[in-house]
Amino acid sequence: MHVPFCVTRCGYCDFNTYTATELGPGASRDSYADTAIREVRMARRVLGDVDLPVETVFVGGGTPTLLPPDDLGRVLSAIDAEFGLAPGAEVTTEANPESVDEASIGKLREAGFTRVSYGMQSAREHVLAVLERTHTPGRVPQVVEWTRKAGFEHINLDLIYGTPGETDDDWRGSLEAALAAEPDHVSAYALIVEEGTRLAAQVRRGELTAPDDDAMADRYLIADEMLSGHGLHWYEISNWAADPRAACRHNMLYWTGADWWGVGPGAHSHVGGTRWWNVKHPAAHAARLAEGTTPAHAREILTGEDRHIERVMLELRLAQGCPAHLLDDEAARRAVGDGLIEPAPYEQGRAVLTLKGRLLADAVVRALT
């Protein structure tokens, strides 16, 4: 479920989100839970009577925790009522450190959430300032402590590396701060300067320096070394977990071609090889559902070739790799020879990226597909 609301827009963000001044009439935070519930009920009607217990729920944003915990709980209850939550279902919400307090975290746990993913991004104030993040570094350990106290077993911290002005030592400091909070999962993403963002405009005007590819590679190597040394091991190129139970099951379903229904404005869905996406503006999304019509904007039916390419592209990012038979053998053996694919697993039928291969993953995938 996509929650498209933010208090302020971060300079690097190009997500489909809206501040109060950008939202306009026809949609609001107050009515959003009811709108989302309408789409959940529509999904049940569209998918029919087939038994489809929900294995995972992921509430992302925007800032989902700008909605009251009771509203998030009502949507989760509607999902359970319409589809049934599978035993042991993973239920995640994203949150900004400043958008929760001890009481709200406790209410989320009571509502049935099992996992929280916090947008930490950095522990250095000057880096947060460039990113236009509003929390202070000391807020993160506090909210992690509250989250653990509320009974959450699984906690993720999101980090970003490569921000203009960030040094290797800044990045090490952010990793050390994240690890000190003892999450069981860390995601670390290279900063991408997206067209149309304030950050892109600052780079274009020369006010900030664009991220350097070599520096990005160095930061990735630092992350892998520090996280692995602390007992968090990579299971996807940008994700490290303490053990298999800590891995994000929801994202694993994306990466392995499962079916999902995306609720909310701009949300994407995939069922049985058909992908579709909703209208982007919250007012248009709400209006269509209020009229009883689909909020879908467009769709595409994936061809066999599309599905093959996507499977290789996504599964090759995983530590478990992808089946070797999906790849052109000659190209794959060249990649083995170049130190991009592990030789022993390949001979046993799996293509697994080496550390060097992870650094060049996009190019490796292009060469193999």
TrEMBL record:
<dbReference type="GO" id="GO:0046872">
    <property type="term" value="F:metal ion binding"/>
</dbReference>
<dbReference type="InterPro" id="IPR006638">
    <property type="entry name" value="Elp3/MiaA/NifB-like_rSAM"/>
</dbReference>
<dbReference type="InterPro" id="IPR007197">
    <property type="entry name" value="rSAM"/>
</dbReference>
<keyword id="KW-0349">Heme</keyword>
<dbReference type="GO" id="GO:0004109">
    <property type="term" value="F:coproporphyrinogen oxidase activity"/>
</dbReference>
<keyword id="KW-0963">Cytoplasm</keyword>
<feature type="domain" description="Radical SAM core">
    <location>
        <begin position="1"/>
        <end position="233"/>
    </location>
</feature>
<keyword id="KW-0411">Iron-sulfur</keyword>
<dbReference type="InterPro" id="IPR034505">
    <property type="entry name" value="Coproporphyrinogen-III_oxidase"/>
</dbReference>
<dbReference type="InterPro" id="IPR004559">
    <property type="entry name" value="HemW-like"/>
</dbReference>
<keyword id="KW-0479">Metal-binding</keyword>
<keyword id="KW-0949">S-adenosyl-L-methionine</keyword>
<keyword id="KW-0143">Chaperone</keyword>
<dbReference type="InterPro" id="IPR013785">
    <property type="entry name" value="Aldolase_TIM"/>
</dbReference>
<dbReference type="GO" id="GO:0006779">
    <property type="term" value="P:porphyrin-containing compound biosynthetic process"/>
</dbReference>
<keyword id="KW-0408">Iron</keyword>
<comment type="similarity">
    <text>Belongs to the anaerobic coproporphyrinogen-III oxidase family. HemW subfamily.</text>
</comment>
<dbReference type="InterPro" id="IPR058240">
    <property type="entry name" value="rSAM_sf"/>
</dbReference>
<comment type="function">
    <text>Probably acts as a heme chaperone, transferring heme to an unknown acceptor. Binds one molecule of heme per monomer, possibly covalently. Binds 1 [4Fe-4S] cluster. The cluster is coordinated with 3 cysteines and an exchangeable S-adenosyl-L-methionine.</text>
</comment>
<keyword id="KW-0004">4Fe-4S</keyword>
<protein>
    <recommendedName>
        <fullName>Heme chaperone HemW</fullName>
    </recommendedName>
</protein>
<dbReference type="GO" id="GO:0051539">
    <property type="term" value="F:4 iron, 4 sulfur cluster binding"/>
</dbReference>
<dbReference type="GO" id="GO:0005737">
    <property type="term" value="C:cytoplasm"/>
</dbReference>
<dbReference type="Pfam" id="PF04055">
    <property type="entry name" value="Radical_SAM"/>
</dbReference>
